[in-house]
């Protein structure tokens, strides 16, 4: 199929790294691996962090101009076979796809669509309504987690939903050769952007958990990442021994894989994580994960098999689990090996390509 791809929250070529940008790129790779011809239809980004009427109206006007621009191109070159939207939700609704699909008679598919019923009233009501209408009319919804599918219940018939477990391009992570270390501290690693909100909350939680560890444990933490909250993040860990915390800054995938190669345990609490691509990258590198059982993390970390999940917000439980894993190298090794097998065997671009192609083929046969 010829597919027009759009990510209203963050385009695949957006300059700021994030999980959203990464998953957009992964979906492009999976669709292409399935033999489809895929092109980014637009880099138009309607995302607004707050419901400001003037900016919403401006975005809608810009969307109208973008629709006409794309329509003119399609009229000259021919339209695609499908519009595929990644992660539409009330703060970043798809203001292009529904109008273009209706004008050119195209089917509409979405992945990781989100519905927030509580936004039906109040300042977000208009964009919530637009997003809800799009979700209801979509021909296919690709859900990464059971939580995603549950959020669409009542809006989308079950036959229009296809489940696609989160996946990665293992690349340098799958090629990691574990570096043998003779003694020394247990090496912990965390990879995350330093920004306000849930990321800052997770950093604070991790710092508190480390501070609650028994004094006799020998450990060291390397933090990979950067962002606007760099100084505030460093302050969170200032009360811990300086020789136990290393800030590695932002790194490309190869640099992150290298940091994981020398680590023993991936630690990231995960407030607000839809699922967390970094957990899969850690698994591909053979690292066990310690996270909280919240959001969609259970879709990428299997408790007791590839890592350990503790109750959301329970600092004592997280600190106890961390202490136990630091003191149990055999368990860490077993969890890490299982994580590597799962990710490299089940969570690959090739596997995702097959699932997506089957979903599109099944939908096409029954439309």
From TrEMBL:
It holds the Pfam family Glyco_trans_1_4. One of its GO terms (molecular function) is hexosyltransferase activity. Keywords: Transferase. This is Glycosyltransferase family 1 protein.
């Amino acid at each position: 199929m010829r597919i027009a791809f759009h990510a209203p929250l963050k385009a695949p070529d957006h300059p700021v790294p994030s999980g959203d940008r990464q998953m957009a790129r992964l979906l492009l790779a999976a669709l292409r691996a399935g033999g489809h011809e895929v092109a980014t239809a637009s880099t138009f980004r309607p995302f607004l962090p707050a419901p400001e009427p003037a900016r919403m109206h401006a975005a809608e006007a810009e969307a109208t101009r973008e629709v006409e621009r794309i329509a003119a191109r399609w009229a000259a070159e021919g339209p695609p076979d499908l519009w595929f939207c990644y992660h539409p939700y009330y703060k970043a609704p798809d203001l292009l796809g529904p109008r273009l699909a209706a004008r050119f008679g195209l089917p509409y598919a979405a992945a990781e669509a989100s519905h927030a019923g509580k936004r039906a009233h109040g300042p977000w009501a208009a964009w919530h309504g637009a997003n809800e209408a799009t979700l209801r009319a979509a021909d296919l919804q690709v859900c990464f987690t059971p939580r995603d599918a549950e959020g669409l219940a009542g809006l989308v018939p079950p036959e229009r939903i296809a489940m696609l477990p989160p996946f990665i391009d293992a690349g340098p992570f799958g090629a990691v050769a574990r570096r043998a270390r003779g003694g020394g501290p247990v090496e912990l690693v965390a990879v995350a952007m330093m920004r306000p909100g849930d990321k800052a909350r997770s950093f604070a939680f991790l710092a508190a958990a480390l501070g609650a560890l028994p004094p006799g444990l020998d450990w060291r933490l390397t933090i990979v990442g950067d962002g606007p909250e760099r100084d505030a993040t460093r302050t969170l860990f200032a009360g811990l021994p300086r020789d136990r915390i290393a800030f590695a800054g932002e790194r490309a995938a190869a640099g992150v894989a290298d940091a994981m190669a020398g680590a023993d345990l991936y630690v990231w609490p995960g407030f607000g994580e839809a699922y967390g691509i970094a957990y899969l990258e850690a698994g591909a590198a053979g690292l066990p994960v310690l996270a909280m059982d919240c959001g969609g993390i259970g879709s990428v970390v299997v408790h007791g098999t590839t890592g350990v999940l503790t109750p959301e917000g329970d600092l004592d439980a997280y600190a106890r689990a961390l202490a136990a894993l630091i003191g149990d190298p055999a368990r860490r090794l077993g969890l890490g090996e299982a994580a590597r097998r799962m990710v490299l065997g089940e969570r690959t671009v090739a596997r995702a390509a097959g699932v997506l192609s089957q979903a599109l083929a099944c939908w096409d046969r029954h439309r």
